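As agreed, record copied across for absentees:
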Amino acid sequence: MERTHAPRTEPSPPPTRRVIATGWVRRAPSTVTHEEARRG
C-alpha cells in the first residue's frame, strides 16, 4: 500500500502513515457510518 505512494523519495515514514490513515478513514464507508452515529 505504501509502495504505490513511493515513500522512498520521502524519508519521513510517520507523515506517510498519517496521510494513508486519513485517506483510509475518509475512503472507508465504515468511518462515515461511525461518524454519523457519533453525531446523532
About this structure: Helices lie at 13-27, 29-39.
